[in-house]
Amino acid sequence: MNIYKYDIVFQEVPDHVSLAFYVCGCPLKCPGCHSPELWTEKTGTPLTTELLQQLITRYRGRITCVLFLGGEWHETELCHFFKICHHNHLRTALYTGLNEVSARLLENLDYLKTGPWVRALGGLDSPATNQVFRDLRTGKILNHLFQHNTKEPSL
Questions:
Q1: Is 7 helix (H, G, I), strand (E, B) or coil?
Q2: What's the confidence (pLDDT) of residue 36?
Q3: What is the domain range of residue 138?
């Protein structure tokens, strides 16, 4: 599994500072995608167990979550990486353009963003979005946390 880059991000997983990996080889190629450089599998460098552990160690105490932007097409490797994250007491998150992912991925994740990018509907910060950000531990949809001046929906 190749990654184009990694970064520390603050907005993608509410209430968490995340180590984010941008995974190469996205088969979806959504029109208007903000990261078409991720479409090619051969770009980037391999994410190894050693590199993941080195980065977790480097950022220990500063990150609380590890986020993969894509990668669901590498299910076995991704689940292995999620287990390493959990072993290091970090939450796990996945952003996918799919509407659903496998049960195996779900059982290894804490947070999941689903839904393809549709320019007319906008991203998670849009009330009209088709995308859903869910806390898998509670089952709650957390889209309201991305939208300014929006309260949590009452049940």
A1: strand
A2: 79
A3: 2-146
